Amino acid sequence: MTIVVAHDYLTQRGGAERVAAHLMQGLQAERMVTSVYNPATAFSAFAGHRIQTSALQRVPAFRTDPRLAFAFLAPAWSAFPPVRADVLLCSSSGWSHGLATARGTRKVVYCHNPPRWLWQPDDYSRGLGLAGRMSLGALSPTLKKWDVTKARTADQYIANSRVVQTRIRQTYGIEAPVVAPPVGLLADGETTAVEGLPSGFVLTIARGRGYKQVDAVIDAVRADPARHLVVVGSGLPAGTRPAPNVTVLGRVPDAQLRWLYREASALVTASREDFGLTPIEANQFGTPAVAVRAGGFLETIREGHNGVFFDDLEPASILAAMDRAERLNPSDVRAAAAEHQPDHFLRALSRYL
C-alpha cells in the first residue's frame, strides 16, 4: 500500500505536528504534503523525508507564521495536483483535507478539530489584533463553504476525541469513529537537565496563543510566591504580565523537555483542548496533570488517578488543584499513559486504512 500524508503546515512544534510525524514514519509514507515547511522550527523527525510544499513556500514570512497567509491557504491547497496513491491520509485541523485525489485514491482525514478560526472564532481570535479579527470576519463565509465542501470529499473521517467527533457531526454532518492520538514525546530517550530551576516547580506547555490561557496559570502562581512556574513553548500571549516566580524558557529540545516532565511536580494547563497530549506525555514520567474540566481532558484524565481538574480560572481553584495533584501516586499516573503509545495508535488507525 502506498500512503501519502498531508499536514496543514510544518512550522511549529505542537501535538498535531507530532502526530503527523508518527503517521509519516510509522506508516512509511511515500511523502509529506504541506503548505509551508520551516526546518528550523519544525520537529527534526521531518528532516530527511520527502516534503512537498505549495507555492507559499517562496514567501519567507509565511514560513515564519502561516497565519499571515490566511487569505491564500485555501487556494494554495486547491492548487496542488491530485495525489496518486492507494491512500491519502490528511492530518488536518484546517487545510490539508482540501487536497484533491486522483481516481482510485482513497482520502482518509484524521481530524484534530474542524478549523477553529471558522467554527470557534471566539477562542481563536483571543490575542489577535483588530486587523486580524476583521480579516477573519470578512473571509469566514467563503472559507466555511470551502471547508464543508472539501470535508465531504473524504472517503473516511476519523476524530481524535469524542469532543471532535461531535464537532465533525455538527459542522459537516459526517459520522467519524474516534482513534485517540499517541504521545508525541516518548519517555525513553536522551535527558538533559535545565540548570537554575528550583525543585518542585510546576510546568505548563503552550504556544503563545490567547486561547491557550497561559495567563490564568501565571496569575495563579503570582498569588502564591512559594510556587514556581516554568513555561515552555513559543512565548507568552501579547499583553500577558510576567511574574517574578515564572521562568519562560521558550522552545526547548526534547532531551530537556523529558527532564522538565520528570522533575515537575505537576503539568498545569488552562486551555480548552480538543484532545490535549501534554498531560498524557507528563503522565509517562509519573507527573500528574492539573487541567480545566473541559474538552478532551475529560477523556484522558481520571480524576484522582492521573490528574486533577479545576472548574474555573480563579487562582484559588488552580492552586487547590495543584495541591491535590501533588499527592497522587506516581505509579497510577504512569499507568494512564500506556494506552497512548504510538504502536497502539497505528494499529487502531490501520483498521480504517
The largest sheet, given as strand count, sense and whether it forms a barrel, is: 6 strands, parallel
Query: What's the mean pLDDT score?
Result: 91
Order of helices and strands: EHEEHHEEHHHEHEHEEHEHEHEHHH
User: What's the CATH architecture name of the largest domain?
Assistant: 3-Layer(aba) Sandwich
What gross morphology would you assign? globular
Label this structure with key terms.
353 residues; alpha/beta; Rossmann fold; 2 domains; six-stranded parallel β-sheet; 12 strands; globular
How would you portray this structure in words?
The protein is α/β, with parallel strands linked by helices and 353 residues long. It has two domains: 3-182 and 342-350, Rossmann fold; 202-336, Glycogen Phosphorylase B (Rossmann fold, 3-Layer(aba) Sandwich). Helices cover 35% and strands 14% of the residues. The protein has 14 helices and twelve strands. It has helices spanning 15-26, 60-64, 70-79, 116-119, 121-124, 130-151, 162-172, 214-222, 254-263, 278-283, 297-300, 315-325, 330-335, 342-350, and strands spanning 3-7, 31-33, 51-52, 87-92, 106-111, 156-159, 202-205, 229-232, 246-250, 266-269, 289-292, 307-310. The strands form two sheets. Strands 3-2-1-4-5-6 form a six-stranded parallel sheet. Strands 9-8-7-10-11-12 form a six-stranded parallel sheet, sandwiched between helices. Helix 11 links the parallel strand 11 and strand 12. Helix 8 crosses helix 12. The N and C termini lie close together (9 Å).
